[in-house]
Amino acid sequence: MMTLNIDDDTASLLRQLSEQEHISPAQLIKHLLSDYLEDLADAAAGDAALAELMNGKDDTISLAEWEQQLNALER
Fold it and tell me: What is any Pfam family matched here (predicted)?
């Protein structure tokens, strides 16, 4: 378990939003933090994929080529 110290303005906003969402402030913080951490992980994965692409370690194909491959799979 962890304790979080926040300023009064943030606490007030948190209470208001938790009331709007009909969940406790603790649940709201868990959801917000989880979403934020997932976003950070997604951004890091995107950065890694872009770095591989820029370094020539990943190939790209056009949309037309992709559609041809998908159509071939459907046959």
Answer: DUF6290
